[in-house]
Design brief:
7% of the residues lie in helices and 47% in strands. By secondary structure, it is mainly β. GO terms for molecular function: structural constituent of chitin-based larval cuticle.
Length: 131
């Protein structure tokens, strides 16, 4: 489809949204790109390519999408996806709070000990019986 052609997609309260532009390319090596923009402000772009890994073949993808939230806030997400998972980035995405300084000091003061994987608890086949 060329950029000059207009097509429509269905939006859930029963109205149609025009697709302003749409592009899609696939290549013999398995890589691809696509993008589209709609009349209601949605914009999407993605590219991907196959990649050989130690466990076989996987896909490496980079992309972004943007739209306006119901309250009018612009939302933009940029992402990568590969054998290690989906990694989104966006100003609106929650982030974990910083570790409080008292806990950071307590963790630093802990003496090095056994790795948790070396800890073995005796097996109790009867959960009602205590040793």
């Amino acid at each position: 489809m060329s950029n000059k052609e207009v097509s429509f997609c269905y939006s859930s309260p029963g109205r149609f949204i025009a697709i302003r532009s749409q592009q899609k390319d696939t290549f013999p090596d398995g890589s691809y790109t696509f993008s589209y923009d709609t009349d209601n402000g949605i914009s999407v772009a993605e590219s991907g390519r196959p990649q050989a890994t130690s466990q076989g073949q996987s896909e490496v993808v980079q992309g972004r999408f943007s739209y306006s939230a119901p309250d009018g806030t612009p939302i933009t997400v940029e992402y990568t996806a590969d054998e290690n998972g989906f990694h989104p980035q966006g100003a609106h995405l929650p982030t974990p709070p910083p570790i409080p300084e008292a806990i950071r000091r307590a963790l630093a003061a802990n003496p090095p000990g056994l790795d948790d994987s070396d800890y073995r608890q005796p097996y109790n086949s009867n959960p009602y019986r205590r040793y």
